[in-house]
Inverse folding.
């Protein structure tokens, strides 16, 4: 759960905090950002509130990205990972971000936001089954496994599944290609209908082709 802020960013945060009301939300976010070097959960929670309710606009920032960069020294990719990781834990694994758990768990077992983000992405992989996900979850939330190791484990599991089930993997790839093709055809056909740039018979033939491709997916 460690992340080292640059000394300049830390100094800027401390300078801003000196002129703010300690009970304000803006001050509390900066306080969590200062503590981000030891724990990302509190900052993730605060940033979710700032992002959802657009508090950054009240503080004179036009966008959330500008706020996180200028105010707390965190670039867009990191801020997005923090938001998505915290939201994922809040929705799927709330126990692991409770104060009671964070205070009682061994520091070495606490996951980084990058590891949690890898776990979140693992849940979207169709090649991984429920048991695969449980194993990855245990390595991240139970053992605090490093994000690099988690990503390697996910890649390895996907390769194993594809080797064990080559026909199924080929079927999934074929289905993905067909869906992209159908999506492109629909978009072009929609535009052609609006602009009337193509003859009616060609538009009709494209509709029929889309129907045939959809049946291919279900065959």
């Amino acid at each position: 759960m460690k992340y080292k802020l640059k000394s300049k960013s830390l100094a800027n945060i401390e300078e801003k905090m000196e002129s703010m009301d300690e009970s304000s939300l803006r001050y509390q976010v900066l306080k969590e950002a200062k503590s981000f070097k030891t724990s990302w959960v509190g900052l993730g929670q605060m940033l979710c509130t700032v992002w959802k309710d657009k508090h950054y606009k009240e503080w004179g920032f036009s966008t959330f990205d500008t706020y996180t960069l200028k105010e707390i020294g965190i670039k867009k990719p990191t801020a997005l990972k923090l938001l998505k990781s915290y939201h994922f834990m809040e929705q799927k694994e709330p126990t692991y971000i409770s104060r009671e758990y964070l205070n009682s768990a061994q520091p070495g077992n606490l996951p980084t936001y990058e590891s949690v983000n890898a776990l979140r992405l693992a849940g979207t992989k169709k090649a991984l089954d429920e048991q695969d996900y449980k194993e990855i979850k245990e390595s991240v939330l139970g053992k605090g496994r490093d994000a690099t190791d988690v990503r390697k484990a996910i890649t390895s599991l996907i390769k194993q599944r594809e080797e064990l089930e080559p026909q199924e993997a080929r079927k999934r790839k074929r289905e993905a290609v067909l869906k992209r093709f159908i999506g492109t055809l629909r978009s072009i056909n929609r535009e052609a209908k609006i602009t009337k740039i193509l003859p009616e018979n060609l538009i009709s033939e494209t509709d029929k082709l889309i129907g045939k491709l959809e049946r291919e997916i279900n065959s």
Summary: The chain is about 75% helix and 0% strand. Residues 1-7 have pLDDT under 50 and may be disordered. The chain has three domains: 7-92, 106-164, 167-218. Residues 166-195 form the longest helix (30 residues).
